[in-house]
Structures are given as C-alpha cells and as structure tokens.
Write a structure and sequence with these properties.
Layout (H helix, E strand, L loop, with lengths): L1 H29 L4 E6 L4 E4 L1 H6 L20 H14 L1 E10 L5 E11 L2 E8 L1 H23 L3 E6 L4 E4 L3 H5 L3 H4 L13 H12 L6 E6 L5 E13 L2 E11 L1 H23 L6
Antiparallel strand pairs: 1-2, 1-5, 3-4, 4-5, 6-7, 6-10, 8-9, 9-10
C-alpha cells in the first residue's frame, strides 16, 4: 500500500511538473513576436498563437474553424508552391508572400514551415513595414534618378585621385560624350590646359570646405571647348574624405554674350576716343 501511495504521489508530482512545463511553453508561444501556427494539408487551421491571431485579425474568442487557410493567400498559387516544397523536402524556409487577413488587410510575410505527417507547423514573420520601406526607397531612388537624368545640369562625382566615378547622362548634351565615355577618366583630361591649375586649386579648396563656384572650360567630343560653371562639396564616408560631388552648368552662351558685350564696348570706346573734336 505504501508503495502504491508513493507511486501515486510521484505521478501527481510529474503531472504537476508537466502542467507547469506545458503552461510555460504556452506562455512562450503566446508571447512570441513571431506568428506560430499549425494547419492540416487541406487548409484547416488547428493552432494559432496570439501573434498569429493578431496577424489574421482574429477577434478574441473567435474560432479557428472560421479561417480558411488557402483563402488567406492573396495569390493561391503561392500556397500550392509551399505545399509542393514541403512534400518534396519536408521544409520550406524564407518564403515571401502576401496574406489577406479576415478584415481584408494585406500583409507581406515571410513563411517558415515544416511538414509533420498530415500537418504543417511553422512561423509567419510580418515584413510589411520592411516592404513598405523598400518601396518608398525605390520610389525615392527612381524620382532622384529621373531628376538627375532630366535636369539641364550634369551631376558628377570625383575620387581623391581626380578620376570621374559618376557622371549623369545630361553630360552628353553639354560635351557630346556619353556618361560611359567619360566615367573613369581623369577630370583634368577634359579641362582646358590654361584652366587646369584653377580647377586643381578649387579642388583643394573644396576639400578644405572653402566652397565657391568655379568657371572653366571643358573639351567637347568635337574638339571645341565650352565654358562651364561647377559647384562642388566633399564626399565624406565614415569620417573620411572620399572625393567630391558637384554640378556642371553650361554657361557658354553667357560667356559668349559677355565677350560680345566687351567687344562692343571696346569698339564704342575706340570710336569715341578717335572721333575728331567738334568745332564750337
């Protein structure tokens, strides 16, 4: 009898330990930031932790039986692919898709799943904010690229050796060279020999944060020189100067106009100075 009583006590202790362990496991599952689920292969949801219920917009107390798993996929073919991978390999990892919650909310997710007999168990990570950030960055990059490629000024970057590392496509309208033809060349190879020292000094000043616009001449593909104005600023990464970034504006027409005006003024001055004095 004593042995039986001792055995019953041991069993009660073990059951209590198991209940405590199970409760701890349940608490762990419910407090997980990842949505944890279990479904049958035919699409019946048999378990969903708190995060999964929130992701699917399940109301408190709402039955899992109301969730038709295949219909939660925005693209049904995605679920078919996941099931196909599970049947072939037993596991599917890092599968990105879009789910539609019970309230109609679209959620970008990453699925990880494992096949256990006739059931699928796995996790769902909500990556909606990440996807939205990616889309916003892509739209911003496209808008910037569109701006760079369609403004009248050419944007360029130069490394510390004075080599062009980037030139926007507009450069072809100014110099006749395509961006590909000038990228990688030394900037000085395009500058009028008489202006090289001026530009070199301007480069040093920019690196010393003495910023001002510079006027100089660049050679075109046809061999003639065009006046440009450049404004630049240093490129700094991780606290180290890597080169400079600037804008080139074609000012040839302005320079030609200034020259014509000076010539006109000189001719007028010469005319006045050489005119005979009037007789009173």
């Amino acid at each position: 009898m004593e042995a039986l009583r001792a055995r019953l006590t041991a069993l009660e202790t073990e059951c209590a330990r198991l209940r405590h362990s199970e409760q701890g496991f349940q608490d762990l599952m419910d407090n997980s930031v990842a949505a944890i689920y279990r479904t049958t292969l035919n699409g019946q949801l048999v378990y969903a932790n708190a995060a999964c219920r929130r992701l699917l917009d399940l109301a408190p107390g709402q039955s899992l039986a109301e969730v038709d798993v295949p219909s939660t996929y925005r693209f049904p073919a995605d679920r078919e692919r996941v099931i196909g991978v599970l049947k072939e390999r037993g596991v599917a990892e890092g599968f990105e898709t879009q789910l539609v919650s019970l309230s109609g909310r679209l959620v970008h997710v990453m699925l990880n799943a494992r096949l256990h007999g006739n059931e699928v168990a796995g996790t769902i990570i909500d990556i909606t904010q990440h996807k939205q950030a990616e889309e916003a960055r892509r739209e911003s990059e496209e808008a910037f690229r569109d701006l760079v490629e369609h403004i009248n000024d050419a944007i360029f970057t130069v490394d510390m050796q004075g080599r062009l590392t980037y030139v926007s496509p507009v450069v072809e309208q100014i110099l006749g060279f395509t961006a590909t033809e000038v990228t990688g060349r030394l900037y000085s190879s395009l500058i009028h020999p008489d202006d090289v020292q001026v530009v070199a000094q301007a480069f040093r000043d920019v690196m010393a944060f003495r910023l001002y616009p510079s006027d100089f001449r660049l050679i075109t593909k046809s061999g003639i020189y065009r006046w440009v104005r450049s404004s630049s600023q240093p490129i700094i990464k991780d606290g180290v100067q890597r080169g400079l970034r600037g804008v080139i504006t074609d000012i040839s027409m302005r320079k030609d106009t200034e020259m014509l005006l000076r010539e006109s003024e000189e001719r007028y001055r010469t005319l006045v100075e050489n005119a005979p004095e009037s007789i009173a």
